[in-house]
């Protein structure tokens, strides 16, 4: 092998050498890929914000059954058309674009559930687009800037977004959160920043530990937490929160000047490498 590829994960993680066979395989996969790496989606989000262009952010928040994309998959949808990233393998993108137009017009987030399970497939395990998918669609705003800054700086961060909570009519003495309210959690140094909504302390305590774990792993998960109501009644207060861990991208070092170097550098653009 003329060129050697060393992959070093941010934060002092493991290193390994990619073989020529793996390189060819990855290049073939990327050439026919229907998505782009998270680095490109976040770069598009930064460009949209810096250009002050209206756009929506669509994120897969839950999947039951079979789906090509898992929770955390994102798509940026500018108001003037197009889109970067994907939330399925093409099954729902047009529907999501249409809903994004409504979301931008209203200026409010929404969670849309798409049931793609066939009548004869009880568990949704037949094909990739054959499950139940929940997608959060929201206006992309400056509230998302901390994610972009952390990612660019090589820091892990978790985006905590409320999907559902105790009814507005109920009395909650120490705070309340509603759909779209957001907080950010960084594991090192440990911080939890309430960006929008009156996040009660009990909810912060409940989501902080899983948020730190998911941030470090770059994984996403929806959690539901509850406690007895603070008004002394038998009611319960609850909240469903989507925790999207955005891990710092691994660094790619290329050694050598052989013919393998150029395709490796192209590969770097297609995959999630810093």
Automatic annotation (TrEMBL):
<dbReference type="InterPro" id="IPR003777">
    <property type="entry name" value="XdhC_CoxI"/>
</dbReference>
<dbReference type="Pfam" id="PF02625">
    <property type="entry name" value="XdhC_CoxI"/>
</dbReference>
<dbReference type="InterPro" id="IPR052698">
    <property type="entry name" value="MoCofactor_Util/Proc"/>
</dbReference>
<feature type="domain" description="XdhC- CoxI">
    <location>
        <begin position="49"/>
        <end position="115"/>
    </location>
</feature>
<protein>
    <submittedName>
        <fullName>XdhC family protein</fullName>
    </submittedName>
</protein>
